[in-house]
Write a structure and sequence with these properties.
Length: about 280
């Protein structure tokens, strides 16, 4: 059973009760950091968003069936008041609990159904190179993106492209997409479009400087269209890493996408590499 399947099984067995990341990590045998990273990368949802969606979907079924007391449904879903439940329910489905109960049907709302546990994570066959890479200085455009879609990332790359080839001290040959902070209270994360530069390079005000230390990386090759890269990342974290004898580095920027000269940003083809910072388990 993959790490993703174990996480889904745990949530589906516990979501009507408190779901503690600490207890989940201890049961599954993976760190809190690992869990909070791998699940969004594989599914497009944070663990908290999936748990919230499953709880509210169960509540929606009760309401559509005519549950007599909305507060009881709210408490069963883990909300301490009618108001908090109504706000979360409307944010999830675009309709209030009372309105759904009056309608008596689920046909108009997008329920959060259980994710498949047995479906194999798709992606490039896993045969990473293990390499130590020296420290890098990067010039980067940072923007906040959504895990549930990621549709804003290509546009972010378009905005970043105007600096490529025009930065003093730029080290050409490759660009990097970097996953930064993941926000616990929503599905958002920081994403960086970056290029290597020489230390001390002056940067435009719109760009930030990232200093990556020398690190050991597991480097996976992603072939095919770039829209399938999440499958390769999920396979790397969910299938290879738990059995590899390594664990992900939990500080700094531990996940990089490297786009070399073969990559065509217009067509989204040409392949890419996934760099995961690791250390011995």
């Amino acid at each position: 059973m993959s790490a993703i399947a174990k996480i889904i099984w745990y949530i589906e067995s516990h979501f009507r009760r408190d779901v503690s990341l600490e207890a989940m990590a201890e049961t599954i045998g993976l760190s809190r950091f690992y869990l909070s990273r791998i699940f969004p990368l594989a599914t497009g949802l944070t663990i908290s968003a999936y748990v919230r969606g499953r709880r509210l979907s169960a509540a929606a079924r009760e309401l559509a069936a005519g549950a007599p007391d909305i507060l009881t449904v709210a408490l069963d879903a883990g909300y301490g008041s009618h108001e908090a439940f109504t706000r979360a329910f409307r944010d999830q489905f675009g309709i209030t609990p009372d309105a759904l109960r009056r309608m008596g049907t689920l046909d108009t709302i997008p329920l959060m159904e259980p994710l498949a546990m047995e479906a194999r994570l798709t992606g490039t066959p896993l045969a990473p190179r293990i390499e130590t890479h020296p420290a890098m200085t990067l010039a980067a455009l940072r923007e906040r993106q959504s895990m549930s879609g990621g549709a804003g990332i290509p546009e972010q790359w378009q905005r970043f492209s105007r600096w490529l080839g025009h930065l003093d001290g730029e080290i050409g040959g490759a660009t990097f997409g970097i996953v930064g902070e993941m926000y616990a209270d929503c599905d958002d994360f920081d994403y960086y479009c970056a290029v290597a530069v020489r230390p001390g390079t002056d940067l435009p005000a719109e760009l930030v400087r990232l200093e990556l230390p020398g690190q050991l990386y597991a480097i996976f090759t992603h072939e095919g269209h770039i829209t399938g890269i999440r499958g390769t990342i999920a396979s790397a974290y969910g299938e290879w890493l738990p059995r590899s004898g390594y664990r992900p580095t939990e500080e700094g920027f531990g996940l990089l996408e490297r786009y070399g000269e073969r990559f065509d940003p217009v067509s989204g083809t040409g392949g890419a590499e996934i760099w995961i910072a690791i250390r011995p388990a």
